[in-house]
Amino acid sequence: MKRLALMGLGLAAILAAGVGGYWAGVRGLPLTGLTKWFYVEATLAASKPLGTGAAIYYQDPDGKPAYSAIPRQTADGRAFRAVRASEDVTFEDKLPTPAEPAGQTGTQRILYYRNPMGLPDTSPVPKKDSMGMDYIPVYEGEDDGSSVVQVSLGKLQRTGVRSELVKRRTVGRLVRVPGTIQLDERRVSVVATRSDAFVNEVANVTTGDRVTKGQILVRLYSPDIAAAGALFLSDLNSGGRDSAIGGARQRLENLGVPPEAIAEIERTRKVPLSITWRAPRDGVVLERNVVEGMKVAPGDVLFRLTDISTVWVLADVPEFDLAAVRIGAPVTIRIRSLPGRTFEGRVSLIYPQVSEATRATRVRIEIANPSGVLLSNMYAEVEIGTGNAVPVVAVPDSAVIDTGTRQVVIIDRGEGRFEPRDVKIGLRGEGFTEIREGIAEGDRVVVAANFLIDAESNLKAALRDLTPPEARP
Fold first, then answer.
1. Which residues belong to any copy of the CzcB-like C-terminal circularly permuted SH3-like domain (predicted)?
2. Structural domain tally of the chain?
């Protein structure tokens, strides 16, 4: 009841002031203070046509920038005003109040009006060009020669401009490239002779079989080895000088006789008819080129073995991704023929050339293969991790405007003011871009609708260049 009584008294005071103001205006009496304000409001309300059509939305009864899609009330219980379809609605500026002279909106004062097409023509009062387009008002602070752009709050709401604080983040991404499994070149061995020989016996091993170090592979008879063995045995039996015995032993070693065969001659004091050749390492037989009874020449490869406990993955990285790949980078490998399994490794070598045909560089990754499931020439899907583990200043990718020759971000200075800023970018990844120069941690950058602000800034700069100083009021 007390609130209703106060509202009634207020309404009576308003009506009395309005009537007094009206009669004062009619009789030529001066209007001051509250009387003048109500007189202007009443005149504006009387001159404004009533809206027709359906209610589009609802606005604060005091004209504040508060809107609602459904009927709503203010905190003090007053209903929002329905805005009809026929009413001319604007979110840009508000009507001047009695406390503000014409040509002034809020705290900004209109300096002059510029040609909407960018021509060097200005006017101190509103006007239209030859095509009927309204001249654009230039507010105080907009034409100060700086790169700061002023955007009205209504336009910001309609265009969906959003900004975020600049933070330090770990920027990285995955370089996904194809690759193939290859044998480790350092783990391949061959079994060969250094003299003419005849094959007496071949072990029961074939291509693809696994062998262990020291396992017997082949027995050979070589006339050269037999002659060197006889000389070595003669020096041993005659008690010759150490130099003579050492020379005979060296000859056997030069012919590639295994140390255990020389030790057997020294122990048994006999030259064997055939020399046994054993596997030099654990591994898989890649080649078997001997059969019993055949003659082999010096250098002929009898067996080729490889250790597959560690294999290589050779991946082709495109040239434009090469700068992001570094030695020691973590790698995840997936094999199409082994679904559900992943293998981990690290980049061990970046080859020093780019393929002319593919414009890609080969990268080598070493991975363990203890179970032997990774086979040579298997196809692999390679994911190489890039970036630095140290957090850097980074912004969302959408905040960077890349023109090809320069990169720009829009700094949000608050209250509708924005400033384009040239930056130098670094790595990109996971939706973020490293900023190496131009902004600092704690700045606020525009991440949505920044192209509109950039266009506004470019238009402002272009118009400033086109309009000579003498043409500005």
1. 393-453
2. 4
